[in-house]
Write a structure and sequence with these properties.
The structure is a single chain. This protein is an alpha/beta fold and 450 residues long. It folds into two domains: 223 residues, Enolpyruvate transferase domain (UDP-n-acetylglucosamine1-carboxyvinyl-transferase, Chain, Alpha-beta prism), CATH 3.65.10; 201 residues, UDP-n-acetylglucosamine1-carboxyvinyl-transferase, Chain (Alpha-beta prism). It is 27% helix and 28% strand. The radius of gyration is 21 Å and the shape is globular. The structure holds shikimate-3-phosphate. Shikimate-3-phosphate (S3P) binds next to helix 5.
Length: 450
């Protein structure tokens, strides 16, 4: 089932060279944060290039429910009239974050230190995901939560009436947990300190500084130590959202595996905490170059050029790179199927608690299409068959997971036989124009099972 309606079966067929320019949508992580920080500042924040995927639309709707005025001006231009730090009103109804772990976890952080009671829910995927990783640190601020067994949604969060600042070491590499703590720290008096052993995406820190919060980041032996001074007046900003590297991953990887391809993917955010996939692809021998490197809105940006790469080799992906490419392992495993030799991915336990168990979802679908995959609790390996040798021909399950759905559609572009998908509906959560964009390059994706 798709998260918002009946299942949408799809089939991707082997296709000729992919050529042209792929203008992928705005960054999902930055889009959520722009709406939330806009809602917490006083005055009008303008956002251009906002991702209009369902995940972000659900966050926009939530910000309205808390009292912010959120307006869609068309073509990715939005404005948010914020209510200020500590100004969230109690919503009249349940907050439905749909499929979005980022949405619900960041919003929980943002409300945890305000005197409001909020009930959160989501789709079947989100309601199965662990929330204790967020509610545990939020309890230290004085917030209480009442959820289903295992700390799952639906869940009611009672914000702390008299919040205290916290000093918290994030136990898993998670930008969502780090960000939830920082957003809660905004309305706690004094300094909230968050330590992360491994660097995860730092959009929250960058954007908080941009909105005028007092925030410092120190590299220490224990990791990155982030210190935020609470109760600032956030000043509205104009945010230009760069295009999403996690979405760029799909046309880039497709171009590498479809013979004769040459695709330009312009304006991609290359924040080092996000760019691990591109480094790994280059290590595999991918013909992938960065053109026109520049800085936009405080984030490094470049145009990516990806060409068919006949000599891809399997690699051991450095585990230290995992956080910077955590959402890209599914599509990397597809590229690995067309490489020579084994690609080893270790230190990736977090993949098991994403929108789906991504190791299991990819391993099952790849095996059904004739690819050799082995997996364990926090690792998996894909043994590549080389270009032209991957059979395909099976139907895969997307498990309500956009990145699983898109990865299998990319697989079918270069297999011997078409690859089908039970439900392509989840693609709309992060990449609503995926079918048009990929078809424009020459892909053959149809809405039917065969
Ligand atoms: C995100 C953080 C990551 C990532 C997700 C977006 C964010 O999740 O998988 O798609 O915007 O903070 P974790 O924090 O669970 O690693």
């Amino acid at each position: 089932m798709s998260s918002h309606g009946a299942p949408v079966p799809m089939t991707s067929r082997p296709c000729g060279p992919l050529k042209g320019e792929a203008r992928v949508p705005g960054d999902k992580s930055i889009s959520h944060r722009a709406l939330i920080l806009g809602a917490l500042s006083v005055g009008e924040t303008r956002i251009s290039g906002l991702l209009e995927g369902q995940d972000v639309l659900d966050t926009a709707k939530a910000m309205r429910a808390f009292g912010a005025e959120v307006t869609d001006h068309g073509e990715g231009n939005w404005s948010v009239h914020g209510v200020g730090v500590g100004g969230f009103a109690e919503p009249e109804n349940v907050i439905d974050c749909g499929n979005s772990g980022t949405g619900v976890r960041l919003i929980m952080g943002a409300v945890a230190t305000s005197p409001v009671t909020v009930t959160f829910t989501g789709d079947a995927s989100l309601n199965g995901r662990p929330m204790a990783r967020v509610t545990d640190p939020l309890a230290l601020f004085g917030a209480r939560s009442y959820g289903r067994a295992g700390g799952r949604l639906p869940m009611t969060l009672v914000g702390a009436p008299d919040p205290v600042p916290v000093n918290y070491t994030v136990p898993v590499p998670s930008a969502q947990v780090k960000s939830a703590v920082l957003l809660a720290g905004l309305n706690a008096p004094g300094k909230t300190v968050v330590t992360e052993a491994e660097a995860t995406r730092d959009h929250t820190e960058r954007m908080l500084a941009g909105f005028g919060a007092e925030i410092t980041v120190e590299e220490t032996e224990a990791g990155r130590v982030i210190t935020l001074t609470g109760q600032p007046e956030l000043k509205p900003q104009h945010i230009e959202v760069p295009r999403d590297p996690s979405s760029a991953a799909f046309p880039v990887c497709a171009a590498l595996i479809v013979p004769g391809s040459d695709v330009l993917v312009p304006g991609i955010g290359l924040n080092p905490t996000r760019a691990g996939l591109f480094a790994s692809l280059r290590d595999m021998g991918a013909d992938l170059t960065y053109e026109n490197e520049r800085t936009e809105g405080g984030e490094p940006v470049a145009d990516l050029r990806a060409r068919f790469s006949p000599d891809l080799q399997g690699i051991e992906v450095p585990p230290a790179r995992a956080a910077s490419m955590i959402d890209e392992y599914p599509v990397l495993s597809v590229v690995a199927a067309f490489a020579r030799g084994e690609t080893v991915m270790r230190g990736v336990k977090e993949l098991r608690v994403k929108e789906s168990d991504r190791i299991d979802a990819m391993a099952t679908g790849l095996r059904a299409n004739g690819v050799t995959v082995e997996d364990g609790p926090d690792w998996w390996t894909v043994t590549g068959a080389g270009h032209g040798n991957v059979p395909g021909g099976a139907t895969c399950a997307s498990h309500l997971d956009h990145r699983i759905a898109m990865s299998f559609l990319i697989l079918g572009m270069a297999t011997q036989k078409p690859v089908s998908l039970d439900d392509g509906g989840p693609v709309a959560t992060s990449f609503p124009v995926f079918e048009q964009l990929m078809s424009g390059l020459g892909a053959q994706i149809q809405r039917s099972n065969r």
